[in-house]
Structure formats: C-alpha cells, structure tokens
Amino acid sequence: MPAHYNKKGMSVLLRLTPEMTKMLSEAADRSGRSNTREAYVRLEDHLKAFTDLATPGRRFTAEGSDTDK
Questions:
Q1: Residue 24: burial class (beta carbons within 10 Å; 0-12, 13-18, 19+)
Q2: Strand-strand pairing, 66-68 and 50-55
Q3: 24 and 38 Cβ atoms separated by less than 8 Å
Q4: How far is the C-alpha of 31 from the C-alpha of 18, rounded, in Å?
Q5: Which of 14, 18, 40, 60 has its CA 20 to 30 A from that of 28?
Q6: Segment 2-49, tens digit of pLDDT
Q7: How far is 61 from 48, CA to CA, in rounded Å?
Q8: Global pTM?
Q9: Strands across the sheet with 58-61, in order?
C-alpha cells in the first residue's frame, strides 16, 4: 500500500503506561513544555537519530552503525 502524507501532518493517539506517563510529565515539567509538545519533540528527535528499531535492545542510527541499548 503506498504511503500518503498530509502536508499538515497527522494526529496520533497513544496509550502510555503509568511509568511512561510519569516519565513524560516529569520531562515536560523540566523543559517547561506541555506533555503534547514534549512527546512531539522527543518523537522527532528519536526518528531523526534512529532510522530503524530492528529488534528490542538494538538500535540502528541514522549514520548506519548499530548500537546496543
């Protein structure tokens, strides 16, 4: 199925564990951002840094080398 991209972007609904919610809220408080903005900034950063997550515990960076967690 071909990918279609909306120039305005898209909304994503996520279900976070209580632990993830706490971590996100604490990070947002530290940065002065809303939870939504904090999640956006972190997702954007992660997508730019890691092109793929092939398996749990192994990350493939945008530069092409893989690293262990």
A1: middle
A2: unpaired
A3: yes
A4: 20
A5: 60
A6: 566 678 888 999 999 999 999 999 999 999 999 999 999 999 998 888
A7: 9
A8: 0.69
A9: 50-55, 58-61, 66-68
Angstrom CA distances, 49 to 11, 35, 59, stand at: 21, 21, 10
pLDDT at 54: 66
Rounded CA-CA distance 55/22 in Å is 25
Residue whose pair of structure tokens reads 């604490």 in the numeric block: 26
Q: How far apart are CA 44 and CA 42, in angstroms?
A: 5
Q: Is 14 helix (H, G, I), strand (E, B) or coil?
A: coil
Q: Where are the alpha helices (DSSP H) in the chain?
A: 18-31, 35-49
Q: What is the pLDDT of residue 51?
A: 74
CB 48 within 8 A of CB 38: no
